[in-house]
Every structure is written in C-alpha cells, then in structure tokens.
C-alpha cells in the first residue's frame, strides 16, 4: 500500500508541476503540493529504510524515493526564494544518471508485468529529470515540451498506477 500512496502523490505533484510549467498554476501555488508530496515520500522512505524488517531492497527503495523527495522540496524552495533553478537542474542531471542503471537492471530482471512496468517508469523518470537539466541548467527552449511531458509522466507513472494499487486493481 505504501507504493500506491507514494505513486499517488508522485502523480499529483508531477501533473501539477507540469501544469505550472505550462503557465496554468502560479509560482506561489505550486509550493503546497511539492511540500506535501515531499513529506509523504520522505515518510515512506524513512519507514522503508528504518523499520525493523528493513533489508537491502527496502533501503534501495528508500534511497531512490528520496531522490523524488529532494526534487519536490527543491522545487518548493526555488519558488519561495525565487532563484533560477540551475542548482536543481544539476541535481536533476545527477538523478537522471543515477537512475539509468536502475532502469536497465529493472528491465533486465523483470519477471512480472509490474516489474516490467516499473523498469519503464525508471526510463520515463530518467528522461524527465534529464529534461529538467536541459531546461534549468542548459537553458534549452523546451519549457512547453517539458511541461507536457511532466503531465504525461505524472499520469502514466504515478496517478493511474497509484490509484490502481490503492483500489486493489493492481498488485505489486
């Protein structure tokens, strides 16, 4: 159930951040969903890493989820402080590079439809974080593309599967 909870908030924040990039939400308004999603993913990560039954797999899951957490808190921080986002862009490159082997390993080891889907999620998230690097640090003119891609990735990798897991329509 924690995976469903986390993915629901990943979906919400990505969809809303995409709409924000497309000019549909004000800078100050986007802070709330980023902080809430950051708190949710932080709590899940702390549980996965430090519960009495934590193992290598749950700690890896926590470490990877904290990459999302840091991103959401950083987006909120940037909106409060009104900085240009270059630091977040460099962090996004770090994350994109970090999760490429995760995507490859997930796809190679996929033994079920859910593990195959998770592998493709990592591919999508790596591409999305790379778009943020290009947009924020390299100042490439891809704002509209990145906004639309963020909405799409939010729906496909977060919102729909999060709701499906929480409703019991999908089993991890």
TrEMBL record:
Location(s), subcellular: Cell membrane
Q: Which GO terms describe its cellular component?
A: plasma membrane
What family does this chain come from, according to its entry?
Answer: Belongs to the AmiS/UreI family.
* Classification via Pfam families: AmiS_UreI (PF02293)
Protein name per UniProt: AmiS/UreI family transporter
The organism's place on the tree of life at top rank: Bacteria
Bilayer topology reads: Multi-pass membrane protein
Please tell me the species this chain comes from: Ancylobacter polymorphus
Keyword set, alphabetical order: Cell membrane, Membrane, Transmembrane, Transmembrane helix, Transport
> Where does the UniProt entry say this protein principally localizes?
membrane
Residues passing through the membrane, by range: 6-23, 30-50, 56-75, 87-107, 119-136, 148-170
